[in-house]
Design brief:
Strand content: 15-25%
Bound molecules: ligand C2E, calcium ion
Number of strands: 29
Distance between the termini: 108 Å
Shape: globular
Length: 745
């Protein structure tokens, strides 16, 4: 009698439907050993790793709320065992430090040695054979034997593959990565059937409205789903085991909630019900009401799930999945009517600023209102969808001419540039719109959307608050971009990047005492490519950090050579993109390296742009100060093109400011740019910041800047960016005065 009787049913009122739509009416008793009870008592928190895309087992449509069969099991276990689960996101290589339980693993995947304690499986489903309602109907499929010599789709890495190979070797299996692919193949007639797990496939058929798919037969194979518990928590495993046995496999209440298909009631239940009707009509009445309630809630849940899968919860517009669907339908319709479709890719300008400055709640309200304004500019036959963030897509059906597309775009632009009144304040945004048309620009939905996206990008580049049609030249730029992106990986492997150096001259005492490292790409086919062509792509793809790390180490190697062969005080500057600060760990490692190698103070300058310092994160501030501590200096590049707040820069202990070459270009005695340059130089000096003038091309420019007491100069007048060997030649003392423009005139 060591076992204590543990009854959690008291907490569960009879015939009580909880908010999750599950009937807790049965009394459930489980027995826990004192050991298990003690464990439960001392354990404050149990963490559970759950997956987010395994419908309907467990999934997360909104990014903050897991739901599904396993989640309902967890909820019921919490009540039953009086335990508290904390959900965390499951990852492929989850560590025991991150979660105590993995909520759902299939019997064919029970391989994680860290989580090898497996309680009683809570779900078990048969594998079924799904076919196309129309195609291949000449032969009825009633069992796996009927699939001999036919192409049949099956999930790659799927559990039953081995079994089918062994027992039905004549079936020609076609492996698919995701269920969608199987449905596509089924639709196209490339396979006659798809073998999949009943619960999951049935669910997908309804949610994705795959009306053409039908379930023809069952296979003898089943798959089970279990929880998996950390190997060092045997008490937890046995507690769950008891709880899950008590709840039962495929618990009817839970399964019913997630089963979308409406099956006819079991005849036995019906018979039972009718006898009950005669004997206990009042009981039946209560039962009936209960059933109605459950049925209603079930229908509600199903509707909700479908809605969540297809609509954006914020703006209530179709989401990108439904959009794809609608676009495909529009294309089919246009093929019949021979009319055009216009696809507008709308991106709000300035939205990020509003969102960051005024908070997400204002941002959300602005998006809702923007969605409404866009919707008011189009007809009911058109589709307005939210593509993500501040991006919207409009599909304009049955267009006769391009000019009406233009007028719709113009009215959307006009509506969006009106002020948005939110919580007693006014906010302003505009929009950039990219346009593609079907069938002119392309035939595939995916491609049309991506072209519209490119055109939108072009509209942004051309100054925003405008629309732009997709053109051949945009296409060419896109292809170029794709080609370059593809080559970048290879470039690292083949060591195709090189550093060029452009000398920086001390204007007071004409000598070369610094140089800026400027990267070049020696492309095997295209020749030398300048950084403006590939740096933005690398910033987009995140490869910039890799390039930056290479630039850093190459510059250190070159610096050692320069110091050895000429001036030990020589300084190199390297450009660091703001995107590199997204990976502060890399930059902090630079500081370590500098310390380890004993690089003298002031040997290295890092050029950054003002934008980085405008609203800097702690990570940015910390990274800069760590690098400053090991003697790295900082320089503001392209000064004058951004916010140009000198005093603000002082806060960050900036050493140099580089006046952008656009100001130097127009320098003439007493003109506006001259006055501006002189003022910047004077003010910077007062703040203890030194000035480098970029892009000096003429002697006049050099002389004016010298007169303004500018500290350093850089530009084609002195030298263009050149390989290290050229720079080394220049640094030979006997040659130094021969550098162009440096001897006094
Ligand atoms: P930047 O930092 O403003 O570099 C100066 C650019 O001006 C260089 O272009 C240089 O060749 C050019 N230039 C120098 N003197 C003159 C002149 O007298 N007249 C004119 N018209 N131009 C002059 P480049 O080498 O094509 O580099 C372009 C930009 O690419 C750089 O602008 C910099 O922002 C970026 N970049 C270059 N190397 C790197 C790198 O290693 N990392 C990162 N993140 N960016 C880099
Ligand atoms: Ca620079
Ligand atoms: Ca610059």
């Amino acid at each position: 009698m060591l076992c204590l009787f543990f009854c959690a049913a008291n907490a569960l009122a009879e015939e009580n439907i909880q908010s999750d739509g599950i009937n807790y009416s049965q009394k459930i008793n489980i027995r826990l050993t004192p050991n298990e009870q003690a464990w439960l008592k001392k354990t404050k928190k149990v963490t559970v790793a759950v997956k987010d895309g395994w419908m309907p087992i467990e999934f997360d449509l909104e990014g903050n709320h897991h739901q599904g069969l396993s989640i309902d099991y967890l909820n019921r276990l919490e009540k039953l065992l009086n335990i508290n689960f904390t959900l965390v996101n499951y990852t492929e290589n989850i560590q025991p430090g991150q979660a105590d339980i993995i909520s759902a693993v299939s019997n064919y995947n029970l391989k994680n040695p860290d989580y090898h304690l497996i309680p009683q499986p809570f779900l078990t489903f048969p594998y079924a054979i799904y076919t196309h309602k129309n195609i291949g109907s000449n032969k009825k499929i009633t069992s796996l034997e009927d699939l001999n010599n036919l192409n049949v789709a099956i999930f790659k890495n799927g559990p039953v593959i081995q079994e089918i190979h062994k027992n039905y070797p004549k079936i020609k299996l076609v492996y698919v990565d995701i269920a969608d692919e199987a449905f596509e193949k089924l639709k196209a007639g490339a396979v006659v059937a798809y073998i999949g797990n009943e619960m999951i496939v049935d669910y997908n058929i309804i949610v994705n409205r795959l009306d053409f798919v039908e379930k023809s037969a069952f296979t003898p194979f089943t798959s089970t789903v279990s929880m998996a518990v950390r190997k060092d928590l045997p008490e937890l495993a046995s507690i769950l085991d008891k709880g899950l046995i008590a709840l039962g496999q495929n618990n009817k209440d839970i399964i019913d909630k997630w089963k979308i298909t409406d099956r006819a009631d079991n005849p036995i239940t019906t018979l039972l019900l009718s006898s009950l009707l005669i004997i206990f009509s009042f009981v039946l009445f209560r039962f009936y009401r209960l059933k109605q309630k459950i049925k209603k809630q079930k229908a509600e849940t199903q509707k909700q799930i479908w809605y969540q899968a297809n609509y954006d919860h914020l703006t209530k517009l179709p989401n990108r999945y439904l959009l794809q669907n609608r676009l495909q339908q529009s294309i089919k319709k246009a093929d019949r009517s021979k009319l055009l479709i216009g696809i507008l890719f709308i991106d709000l300008d300035n939205f990020k600023k509003v969102n960051d400055k005024s908070g997400h709640s204002i941002g959300d309200k602005l998006l809702i209102e923007a969605a409404e304004r866009i919707g008011n500019c189009v007809r009911t036959v058109d589709t307005t969808a939210r593509f993500g963030g501040d991006e919207f897509i409009v599909i304009l059906n049955d267009m006769k001419e391009l000019s009406s597309l233009e007028s719709t775009c113009q009215s959307i632009l006009n509506k969006l540039e009106q002020p948005f009144s939110i919580d007693n304040d006014e906010y302003y945004v505009t929009a950039s719109i990219g346009i593609t048309t079907y069938p002119n620009d392309g035939h595939q939905a995916e491609a049309l959307l991506s072209y519209a996206d490119q055109a939108m990008f072009e509209a942004k580049k051309l100054g925003r608050n405008r629309f732009q049609f997709f053109t051949q030249s945009i296409q060419a730029a896109l292809l170029n971009k794709l080609a370059i992106t593809g080559d970048i990986r290879e470039a690292f492997l083949q060591k195709q990047f090189v550093l060029y150096y452009q000398p920086i001259v001390d204007l007071k005492n004409p000598t070369i005492i610094k140089a800026e490292a400027l990267v070049r790409w020696n492309h095997p086919v295209r020749g030398v490519i300048n950084p403006v062509e590939f740096i933005p792509l690398m910033e987009e793809t995140g490869l910039i950090s890799e390039l930056g790390n290479w630039v850093f180490s190459q510059a250190l190697r070159d610096l050692a050579l320069i110091k050895e062969n000429s001036n030990a005080e020589f300084q190199l500057s390297i450009n660091v993109s703001p995107y590199q600060f997204n990976k502060p760990a890399d930059l902090l490692k630079w500081a370590e390296t500098i310390k380890e190698l004993g690089i003298p103070q002031h040997s290295l300058t890092i050029e950054i742009t003002e934008g980085l310092l405008l609203e800097p994160s702690n990570a940015v501030i910390n990274t800069i100060s760590t690098l400053k501590k090991v003697g790295v200096e900082f320089s503001i590049d392209d000064f004058g093109t951004g916010y140009s707040a000198l005093a603000y820069l002082k806060k960050f202990d900036i050493d140099y400011v580089k006046i952008d070459r656009s100001f130097i270009h127009n320098l003439e005695p007493l003109n506006y740019d001259a006055v501006l340059c002189e003022a910047i130089i004077e003010m910077a000096h007062k703040l203890g910041i030194k000035i480098i003038a970029e892009g000096i091309e003429t002697v006049l420019q050099k002389e004016l800047l010298t007169q303004f007491e500018c500290d350093y100069g850089q530009g084609f007048l002195f030298a263009e960016p050149e390989p290290l060997s050229e720079l080394l030649k220049r640094l030979k003392p006997e040659l130094i005065l021969l550098v162009r423009g440096m001897a006094s005139h």
